[in-house]
Design a protein that fits this description.
Shape: flat
Strand order of the largest sheet: 1-2
Number of strands: 2
Largest sheet: 2 strands, antiparallel
CATH class: Mainly Alpha
C-alpha cells in the first residue's frame, strides 16, 4: 500500500479550496444572500422615510420654548407642549408603578414557586393573550373601572390603562430572565442554608435583573406611544399639572400622543408644525428607552 511519501511528488495533492461562483451551492448562497439584503433594504425604506420626515418637519421647529410653554389656541402663533411632556411621564410613571411590582411578583411565582401548577399555566395563557390586546380595549376597561368610578378623566385612569398594556411584557420577560438563572447557583445557595425566599431575593432576582430591566424598558417604550387608551381615560388639557403649588392629578392631563392626534387634524399651520415636533420628541423618547433596554440586555451582573 502506497503512502503519501510514495507518491510521485512525495505527498498527496492538496485539495483546491478556492470558491467557485459557478458551483450550485455557491450560486444558491450568493442569490439568497442578495435576496436577504434586498428585503432588508426594502423593509428599512419606510422607517428611514418616516425618520427623515420627522427630522425635516419636526426638527426645524425644535426650540427651548417647546419644552417650557403651553399649547397655543387655534389662531395663536408659537407655543409648545411642555405640559404634554410632563403628562406623558406622569401617566407612564403611574403605569410603571402599578405594572412592575405586580409583574415581577407574578414572574417569581411562574418561574420559581409554582412553574408547573395549573394556576401558572392559566397565568401564562392570560399574559400571552394580553400581549395582543388592542390598546383601545385597555382604555375602555380603565374608563369603566376608574373614570366612571371617580367621575372624572385623570392621570391615574390613564396610568391604569397603560399598566394593563405593560403588565404582560413585564411578566413574560421577567419569567424568562429568571429561568435563565442556572440551577447550580440555586443549589449552592440552598447548600449554604438559605431559605427559598433568600434564594429568590439574593440570588435569582439580582442575577436576572438585566433581563428584567430589559422587559421593563420595552414595556415603558410601548406605553409611551399609546394614544387610544389615553383618549378614554386622561383626555387632554391645555394647563400644567401643577399650578399655584397644587397638583391636579384627578383632572384631565395632557400627553404627547394625544397632542399629536389633536393637532395633526387642525387646519392651522402652527398646530401642524407642533404635531411634527411632538412626534419627533416622542420618537426620541421611545428610541432612548429601546437603547437602554438593549444595554441592560447585554450587561451582566
Amino acid at each position: 500500500m502506497r503512502g503519501p511519501l510514495d507518491s510521485p511528488q512525495g505527498a498527496w495533492p492538496l485539495p483546491n479550496l478556492k470558491r467557485s461562483l459557478t458551483e450550485p451551492r455557491s450560486l444558491n448562497s450568493t442569490l439568497l444572500s442578495g435576496l436577504a439584503w434586498a428585503c432588508a433594504v426594502i423593509a428599512s425604506v419606510p422607517l428611514l422615510s418616516v425618520l427623515y420626515m420627522l427630522l425635516v418637519r419636526g426638527g426645524s421647529r425644535l426650540s427651548l420654548e417647546l419644552f417650557t410653554e403651553l399649547p397655543p389656541a387655534g389662531f395663536e402663533e408659537g407655543g409648545g407642549f411642555g405640559n404634554a411632556i410632563v403628562g406623558t411621564f406622569v401617566t407612564v410613571g403611574i403605569g410603571a408603578l402599578i405594572s412592575i411590582p405586580f409583574g415581577i411578583i407574578a414572574a417569581v411565582f411562574l418561574a420559581e414557586l409554582g412553574p408547573d401548577s395549573k394556576l401558572a399555566a392559566w397565568a401564562r395563557f392570560c399574559a400571552k393573550t394580553l400581549t395582543g390586546l388592542p390598546s383601545i380595549l385597555a382604555g375602555v376597561f380603565a374608563y369603566a373601572l376608574v373614570v366612571l368610578t371617580t367621575g372624572t378623566y385623570s392621570a391615574p385612569a390613564g396610568g391604569v390603562a397603560l399598566a394593563l398594556l405593560m403588565l404582560p411584557t413585564v411578566v413574560l420577560t421577567s419569567e424568562e430572565a429568571m429561568k435563565m438563572v442556572t440551577q447550580k447557583m440555586k443549589d449552592a445557595a440552598y447548600g449554604l442554608g438559605c431559605t427559598r425566599t433568600q434564594v429568590i431575593v439574593k440570588v435569582v432576582l439580582p442575577t436576572a435583573m438585566p433581563g428584567i430591566l430589559t422587559g421593563v424598558m420595552l414595556a415603558i417604550a410601548r406605553a409611551a406611544g399609546e394614544t387610544a387608551p389615553l383618549l378614554f381615560t386622561a383626555l387632554f388639557s391645555n394647563y400644567w399639572l401643577v399650578e399655584d403649588g397644587e397638583v391636579h392629578l384627578m383632572a384631565p392631563i395632557a400627553s404627547l400622543s394625544v397632542l399629536i392626534y389633536n393637532f395633526s387634524g387642525m387646519p392651522f399651520e402652527n398646530q401642524i408644525e407642533l404635531a411634527w415636533a411632538a412626534s419627533l420628541v416622542l420618537v426620541m423618547f421611545v428610541l432612548i428607552f429601546n437603547i437602554i433596554s438593549r444595554a441592560f440586555g447585554q450587561s451582566k451582573v
